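We emphasize that the prediction below concerns an isolated chain of 77 residues; any contacts that depend on oligomerization or on bound cofactors are therefore not represented. The input was used exactly as deposited, without trimming of termini.
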Amino acid sequence: MAPSKPFDAEAALDYMLLLISNSEFKPDFHATAVAADIASANNAQKKFKKIVEQGGKYKLVKGKVVAADAEEDEDEA
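Result of the prediction step, given as a token string:
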């Protein structure tokens, strides 16, 4: 059996963000805050936004993950 490649966390995160950006849903930040023991939905969204934007390939607009070079509406979230 061929040896498995080591886990590449950056590639995995890129794939997850690509998957989310091509999905027709917005995350439920209230439920996420409760499940992750975060004080509020707003704080959960801020944490997610920070993670999304760290790599520079994606951004969070109106609660949806989009490509960093996508045109944004005036009401960014």
